[in-house]
Amino acid sequence: MIKMFVFDLDGTLLKKDQSFDDHTVDMIKELQNDGKKIVIATGRNYTLSYYLAEKYDIQCDMIVNNGHEIRWPNETAYTPFDKDILLQVLAIFKKYDMHLTAYGENDTKYSFYDEDKYYNEHIFMSESMRGCSVEDKKDIPLFNRAYYAKNLIQMEEVGDFENINILKIDSKSLHTESNKRCIEELKEIPNIMIASACEEYVEVIQDNAHKASAVLELAKSYGITPDEICVFGDGENDIEMLEAVKYSFAMENAKDCVKQVAKYVTDTNNNQGVLKGLMQLREMGEI
Q1: Per-residue pLDDT tens for 173-182?
Q2: Backbone angles phi, psi at 147, to 5 degrees
Q3: What count of other Cβ atoms lies within 10 Å of the Cβ of residue 284?
Q4: What total of structural domains would you count in the chain?
Q5: How far apart are CA 99 and CA 170, in angstroms?
Q6: What is the DSSP code string of the chain?
Q7: Domain that holds residue 253
Q8: 159, 94 in Cβ contact below 8 A?
Q9: Residue 131 shares a structural domain with residue 244
């Protein structure tokens, strides 16, 4: 019997319009009321994740920054980059003048840009990548300046990070050739994990933690085994946790490499894929 359900956000629980499906939320709350542990596991930071759980009144633990931060109700655990590795990664991103975000402890964010440039370029690139304006979506944290730039600290040089604990780094650029060269250089650095959800986006963590290690650590704290966990995901950064548990669902919108490691494939994030996966488990008698 499944005791813990773990959900990725973007491309999984979140629809393209950055909302949750109401029927899926009802099902999750039903599981929650039955005593099941609900976990959100995402590459997002805590600010952009907690807002969604609070908005839909989902009581859950959170794995954020791709497993380098675990949030229990009364405790937080961090796994930061090794400093030498961190500085190598940052130097490559700065070389290509990427729109970089380095995520620190206590929900801090660091960039080589000031707040105006950081936010304005984020909106410009988001609209270019989506092919439409996000002006009517500025109430959504991902596009809202107060949320997106919360706790942002501008850094001038790579060396400024010498005494800062960084959990995850991501970057965006519309110059896809520069992105490709950046990724090729990053691949020369040992002990890091690189994910790219699209050709404009690059995400880097150190391999000392990831979503899977965080899921297993969280489960262990509750006496839950991998055979009692179900995971839903769609991205390359979900592969390890999909492999680590007995019940795993890849979304139909996932890349083939993600579908290949999951036990089941459900519908897309825009077509109630999570709900359909949960209903399948109910029919199997696992819920």
Answers
A1: 999 888 999 9
A2: -80, -50
A3: 11
A4: 2
A5: 8
A6: ---EEEE-TBTTTB-TTS-B-HHHHHHHHHHHHTT-EEEEE-SS-HHHHHHHHHHTT---EEEEGGGTEEEETTEEEE-PPPHHHHHHHHHHHHHTT-EEEEEEGGG-EEESS-HHHHHHHHHHHHHHHHTS--GGGTTSTTT-HHHHTTTEEE-SSGGGGTT--EEEEEEE-S-HHHHHHHHHHHTTSTTEEEE-SSTTEEEEEETT--HHHHHHHHHHHTT--GGGEEEEE-SGGGHHHHHHSSEEEE-TTS-HHHHTTSSEE---GGGTHHHHHHHHHHHTT--
A7: 4-78+210-283
A8: no
A9: no
**Given this model, what pLDDT does residue 28 score?**
98
Contacts of 187 by beta carbon, 8 Å cutoff, 6+ apart? 194
Question: Do 105 and 196 belong together in one domain?
Answer: yes
For residues 258 and 233, give the distance between their C-alpha atoms in angstroms, rounded to a whole number. Answer: 8
Read off the pLDDT of residues 99-126 as tens digits, 9 standing for 90 and up.
999 999 999 999 999 999 999 999 999 9
Phi, psi of 232 (to 5 degrees): -120, 135
Whole-number average pLDDT of the chain: 95
Domain boundary residue among 206, 229, 252? 206
Residues 201 and 92 in one domain: yes
Domain boundary among 179, 206, 233: 206
Q: For the domain that residue 50 is a member of, what is the CATH number?
A: 3.40.50.1000
- Verify that 46 and 88 share a domain, yes or no: no
Note whether 101 and 243 are same-domain residues.
no
What gap in Å lies between CA 284 and CA 282, rounded to an integer?
5
- Is the predicted pLDDT of residue 253 greater than 90, yes or no? yes
Tokens of 45: 């930071």
Structure tokens at 238: 């979900």
Length of the chain: 287
